[in-house]
Amino acid sequence: MSGHTPKSRVTLSEPTWVKALIMLAGLGFLGFFILLPLAAVFTEALRRGFGAYAEALVEPDALAAIKLTLLVAVIAVPANVVFGIAAAWAIAKHKFPGKSLLLTLIDLPFSVSPVISGLVYVLLFGAHGLLGPFLREHGVQIVFAVPGLVLATMFITFPFVARELIPLMQAQGVDEEEAAITLGASGWQTFRRVTLPNIRWGLLYGVLLCNARAMGEFGAVSVVSGHIRGETNTMPLHVEILYNEYNFVAAFAVASLLAILALVTLVAKSLLEWRHGAELAATARRH
Amino acid sequence: SGQILNVSYDPTRELYKEFNAAFAKHWKATTGEELEIKVSHGGSGKQARSVIDGLDADVVTLALASDIDAIAENSDLLSKDWQAKLPYNSTPYTSTIVFLVRKGNPKGIKDWDDLVKPGIQVITPNPKTSGGARWNYLAAWGYAADKAGGSDAAGKEFVTKLFKNVPVLDTGARGSTTTFVQRGIGDVLLAWENEAFLAINELGADKLEIVVPSVSILAEPPVAVLDKNVDRKGTRKVAEAYLTYLYTPEGQELAAKHYYRPRLPQLAQKYAHQFPNIKLFDINKFGGWTVAQKTHFADGGVFDEIYKPGQ
Amino acid sequence: MSININNLTKRFGGFAAVDGIDLDIHSGELMALLGPSGSGKTTLLRMIGGLDFADEGTLLIEGEDATIAEPHARRVGFVFQHYALFRHMSVFENVAFGLRVSRRRPKISEAEIRTRVMNLLELVQLAPLSDRYPNQLSGGQRQRVALARALATEPRVLLLDEPFGALDAKVRKELRRWLRDIHKGMGVTTVFVTHDQEEALELADRVAILNKGRIEQVGTPAEVYDNPASAFVCDFLGGGTRLECVVADGAAVIGGARVPVVNDLPPPGPATAYIRAHDIDLAPAGEAGTLPAIIRLIQPVGPQLRLDLDLDGKVVEAVLDRHATPLLLAPGQAVSLRLRRANVYPA
Amino acid sequence: MSININNLTKRFGGFAAVDGIDLDIHSGELMALLGPSGSGKTTLLRMIGGLDFADEGTLLIEGEDATIAEPHARRVGFVFQHYALFRHMSVFENVAFGLRVSRRRPKISEAEIRTRVMNLLELVQLAPLSDRYPNQLSGGQRQRVALARALATEPRVLLLDEPFGALDAKVRKELRRWLRDIHKGMGVTTVFVTHDQEEALELADRVAILNKGRIEQVGTPAEVYDNPASAFVCDFLGGGTRLECVVADGAAVIGGARVPVVNDLPPPGPATAYIRAHDIDLAPAGEAGTLPAIIRLIQPVGPQLRLDLDLDGKVVEAVLDRHATPLLLAPGQAVSLRLRRANVYPA
Amino acid sequence: MTVSSGFSLFRRRNRSIIPGFGLTMGITLTYLTLIVLIPLAALVIRPWEIGLSGFLHQVTEPRVLAALRLSFGAAFVAAAINAVFGLAVAWMLVRYDFWGKRVVDATVDLPFALPTAVAGIALTALYAPNGWIGQFLDPLGIKVAYTPLGVVVALTFIGLPFVVRTVQPVLEELDTELEEAAACLGATRFETFMRVIFPVIFPALLTGFALALARAVGEYGSVIFIAGNMPMVSEIAPLLIVIKLEQFNYAGAASVGIAMLILSFIMLLVINLLQRWSRRWAGV
Ligand SMILES: Nc1ncnc2c1ncn2[C@@H]1O[C@H](COP(=O)(O)OP(=O)(O)OP(=O)(O)O)[C@@H](O)[C@H]1O
Ligand SMILES: Nc1ncnc2c1ncn2[C@@H]1O[C@H](COP(=O)(O)OP(=O)(O)OP(=O)(O)O)[C@@H](O)[C@H]1O
Ligand SMILES: [Mg+2]
Ligand SMILES: [Mg+2]
Ligand SMILES: O=S(=O)([O-])[O-]
């Protein structure tokens, strides 16, 4: 009777068959929806070998698209970082009426179709838009040029950094800031030396996701791009063009570059989580 | 050095790639000026919309006259009589609509009537967004109407049946070709003649073949200079030269090379062997593009009726 | 470094968390703010520290008006209940923080920062742990870092919010003595918040007892314990069993027995008496001037014997010295109670 | 409903958290598992409750082998330190949960559930709050809900892990008495874990003292307090000041003074003596058989007077009754200590 | 005391000790207004030229209604699929140990990062009748690409991380003692899940569902490649906006856009209310 095998925490585990079912459902789901598409991208990209793959990436139009994408990200992401930090500071560290309204407005771009995100700028800055004619008279081109791409990208990625920081900073409370202030630190010193180090991983995570989305946005930039070869085509648009030229290898090669970017982002992110799990755990991780 | 922007539609990518290089060289030789020619491709309607909204094009080379009409109507970029400014209705090359089927023509598709048979899947882009698709639609309509002695009712019935056989509506000609060739969807693709040739060259003569219907439409993709833009940018001279060059033997050779039917008689003759001999009717059968556009493709037009529920 | 608080009031919404408080804290004193949860202790302390600002009233620190001064201008050190240590800084850097951000010119040299921080860490017995990060420390150690950090800027006033609230009983006791020693050694005016009566009585020079945003009594531990100014204070400081009584002839009469009253006698008539467990002696049943009771429960707890006694259906708690209890007691036994003294308040 | 634990062992990795424990818990008894943090109390309790399973040894409940039985089959009620109340259920639903998921057939009727739950809520004095959600309750109230919930399924054994650990001092004291009363009323065998000596001594019928996964001593509160079986137990139960001594002639000699030894005397030679603060009397300086000391600090705490005394550079803590202290004491004063008794263990 | 110091006294008494509110709030509101509010206002006022009746006419066209129904319906189905499988994935990641768990965990975020157009092309390549997966489904008569099912597939892909990432932290924080308590009280594993675990994670699940839904409703890039875009059948609302734009029908495009905004808003409102209700125990 007492020659039993020891078991542990039986109360907290499902029967083996249930466990197997959940694993199967989970892994199968991820396999079908994540692994296979990813595999498809790389298979197609390397269909003609590595030479063709590399060639597709150094082709001048591809390089121009890569440069443009980087340029857009380099402007849009820091702008959203400044905004995100400011918004998180105001919302998480202060009390004011209308806070939940502000939070809703910050989330707004998230529930707006990318097509609409592009459209609003056309309605605003297009030749027949509200401000377009005036700007045109003064020689300012916004849509169908880099500023339009940047604006649409900013709109799309608007909530990312703020959304990452607000719950994190709310969870951290104001104790440390108050402590710093009683010790004589100025507002800037408090931010620089106390708040920023506390949110740095969350911030970096937000920046990575914001950046990935900024580089990968298609719908919104498609509306405001004008598709001028070598000039206003970002990488996702260039993928579409190559695809439409029956140049599938090149299309998937550029796509794979974006996928690699996504993967690097994710690896960086999980490294962060692995090393700074507790700090990041406070974020609700919603995007 | 100068720069001009040509806003064009999807199937002209290959043509203008080569033509631009040739013209830049020509321009350098005649004026000594370096010229950079930018191009933008997309569905014809979308391109027109971008131009209206401020895409800073010098010239447009679109799939059909109504798209340039729309530009004239919705902006002050060029005058309404733009089509009279260049020879041949401002159409330096023409094309037509043919069928692309799978190798060996397994469904035995010969002519328009075969397309409306039950069980046949026809691939065409969406006439709302694609210029090519409008030509497809009108070609089918014209065939059926003619066959019934000029009856519009017959035309409408025919296209209604035809679109019942369409399983996928891509937004542009290129999307449809990909769907048909790469995804293996459908039995027949309605395509620009030049697209059909290109598809065979690019994607495999071993997989596809062209079927030429008994009658088709004379598709006239027009070109125009955007007066307001070129005047503002000071590029009128080069823009006009650019379009005129399309009418030169060099330009016509290139068009023919990319399977557009040249307009210049001597070249048309030279390349006659390349293009099947089809009976072609033109847009005037529909009262010109302005009327055709309004009747068939505008919101609430005939095409929308085809997709009314309960049909 | 004295603090004078005059009619200080703070409202949240319509609710007055601190309601017209007057309080003088003497220079060098160790003052406890004691009160139940929600009585406004934290709010008052934060106003002294400059973390919240009063709606009414004034606050003088060393005679200067500090009502709206910035925390650093007040030169106060604040120790937060949950320490609020900077997680990403080592113990050393935490303590050095106030020196590094100091607005004093010329800047304090790195060498001097080192000396001063290490001296402080010696003081709080954490010098060997100076390279650790807060999450590598126990609760008691964190509390000591927080204290060293607050002391580093040489504050005129040290403020502590429930300094030992998050620690377990044993550590709490150790740190009490340690804080008293530190305070003795440095002599800095210190105010701490607690809701633990024993802690306040053991540690403080004087105790201010708060209730619903107002001060009920201020005095030395002995004063407030021996002579609670109100029923609330008496009850809150472990008043013991509450019994009905009648005040007559300068004493309280409980069930026929006269009990000496230690506090200011209320006017004759019905009143409420509090009898502390230590103020009850047991006598053989039937002795004169005593109350008859029945033993319900006897529990030896360490050096004491705790008894629950049934007095007319009411449970009375008594504590006797285990080694000095001559009677042989057993549950169910009838005994007499002699009440040595009582605190009595108008009913 | 007795529990017999035989050589129970639980390892985590290579480390034995519970290391061959033998323990008999009698039917109807209230047993405390007392020990410092990490001593294996929770692990032992969880094994009794069927939440963890032993690597070695057996566990009998009412004579039946329960070593590997599921929790519900053991019919134990478990009260978790942090209550583990179901946040999304009202107080009523929390208590009713065990009845609703009962595998008994026929199902318990809704009417009966209602009656039983409301009776339990009456018992824990929470009937008026039956519709509240847990986060609308105070800590003490939550703890009582947790207890009612555990009792609802009429367990044979009630297990409580640090039942009052998360409560503040005052509430903790109130709930102690209340738990004792409930236990008396229901008579269910109860085992509770604590690291608070006073709590264990005050509440339990018997106390098991754990150290490093082993049991050091089992006995009634008086037994373990008066006669600690080891230096660990003595120290852990508030052993008082530790002094070096020499055992000779049946007594401990400390600084020339002979001190009676209460526990089993170790062999003659150097040893360690523990003197409790209550076992120190003050005498005028120079009395025979006493130790000279100097008063460092006097602190009246409630009914007591706490003194720190300097005995040859070592701090000795003493507690006197405030009202029974005839000497006029002041810091700095030289006095004599008379040590009334000591616990002595081999050095 | 002078008037001005009296004023500053009043002012400073009400301020917070944490500085920078004015500055950061200023930045926030300015940026929000410039990037989000003004452009959206431009959208909202656009259909004025056609009036309310014109707006209503535009959005009640059968094709518009069909497209809206598809966009919202497919998004709803996709979010529901994600709720079920996302919960399984989150559960697996939190509760089970298996080889490669870290990698699996990381890949969940891929749809956030992968450009939607790339996803659309890749999914089409997979699910077309001659694709890796489609070739097995086609003989069974299951058509994915170029049908509403394809729309659901694409929307499932882009919404996948939301449910996992909102449920996962809640599951992680879920006190195992709750489950032990339930087990002690005699609940089976299934009962424990249904009565103890699920109600606690339900609000988070709902949040994840709402986020996935909101994102999916407006999605364009990944859908147009796989949808087939048949009017009345597989044409999504954002595509209709594009089509209307290409017809130079700005007012119509804006009308559909506004209709989408309004519907999304109502839907999110309902979900929010539902969520609040499901967390009624959390409010004091
Ligand atoms: N920022 C605030 N907003 C609204 N009410 C508040 C705020 N801070 C405190 N209060 C309220 O003021 C009262 C006093 O709070 P305070 O924190 O000073 O109490 P406390 O005595 O420190 O209690 P505790 O012992 O629980 O810490 C409470 O009723 C509290 O709810
Ligand atoms: N699941 C586990 N895995 C590894 N080690 C464990 C586990 N549970 C407990 N331990 C270890 O076993 C020892 C005993 O733990 P246990 O929780 O029983 O102590 P405890 O007496 O209840 O302490 P506390 O008073 O801190 O609750 C500790 O050293 C602990 O670190
Ligand atoms: Mg407080
Ligand atoms: Mg424990
Ligand atoms: O490019 S098209 O307009 O013909 O699709």
From TrEMBL, chain A:
Location, primary (coarse class): membrane
Keyword field contains Transmembrane: yes
Localization of this protein: Cell inner membrane
Topology in the lipid bilayer: Multi-pass membrane protein
Domain ABC transmembrane type-1 residue range list: 66-267
Transmembrane region(s): 21-42, 62-89, 101-127, 139-162, 248-268
Keywords carried by this UniProt record: Cell inner membrane, Cell membrane, Membrane, Sulfate transport, Transmembrane, Transmembrane helix, Transport
GO CC field: plasma membrane
GO molecular function: ABC-type sulfate transporter activity
Function field: Part of the ABC transporter complex CysAWTP (TC 3.A.1.6.1) involved in sulfate/thiosulfate import. Probably responsible for the translocation of the substrate across the membrane.
Oligomeric form and interacting partners: The complex is composed of two ATP-binding proteins (CysA), two transmembrane proteins (CysT and CysW) and a solute-binding protein (CysP).
Protein name, entry field: Sulfate transport system permease protein CysW
Taxonomic path: Bacteria, Pseudomonadati, Pseudomonadota, Alphaproteobacteria, Rhodospirillales
UniProtKB/TrEMBL annotation, chains C, D:
Pfam families from the UniProt entry: ABC_tran, TOBE_3
Gene Ontology biological-process entries: quaternary ammonium group transport
GO cellular-component term (any): ATP-binding cassette (ABC) transporter complex
Boundaries of every ABC transporter domain copy: 3-237
InterPro entries: AAA+_ATPase, ABC_SmlMolc_Importer, ABC_transporter-like_ATP-bd, ABC_transporter-like_CS, Mo/tungstate-bd_C_term_dom, P-loop_NTPase, Sulph_transpt1, TOBE-like
A GO molecular-function descriptor: ATP binding
Protein name: Sulfate ABC transporter ATP-binding protein
Lineage: Bacteria, Pseudomonadati, Pseudomonadota, Alphaproteobacteria, Rhodospirillales
From TrEMBL, chain E:
Protein's membrane topology: Multi-pass membrane protein
GO CC terms of this entry: plasma membrane
Subcellular localization: Cell membrane
Domain of life: Bacteria
Start and end residues of each ABC transmembrane type-1 domain: 68-275
Gene3D superfamilies: MetI-like (1.10.3720.10)
InterPro entries according to UniProt: CysT_permease, MetI-like, MetI-like_sf, Sulph_transpt2
Keyword annotations: Membrane, Sulfate transport, Transmembrane, Transmembrane helix, Transport
GO MF entry, a single one: ABC-type sulfate transporter activity
Primary localization: membrane
UniProt keyword Membrane, yes or no: yes
UniProt KW Transmembrane helix keyword: yes
Membrane-spanning intervals of the chain: 21-45, 65-94, 106-128, 140-164, 196-217, 223-243, 250-274
Record-linked SUPFAM superfamilies: MetI-like
Coiled-coil regions, chain positions: none
Function: Part of the ABC transporter complex (TC 3.A.1.6.1) involved in sulfate/thiosulfate import. Part of the ABC transporter complex CysAWTP (TC 3.A.1.6.1) involved in sulfate/thiosulfate import. Probably responsible for the translocation of the substrate across the membrane.
Sequence similarity: Belongs to the binding-protein-dependent transport system permease family. CysTW subfamily.
Assembly behavior: The complex is composed of two ATP-binding proteins (CysA), two transmembrane proteins (CysT and CysW) and a solute-binding protein (CysP).
Name this polypeptide is given: Sulfate transport system permease protein CysT
Gene source species: Niveispirillum lacus
Gene: cysT
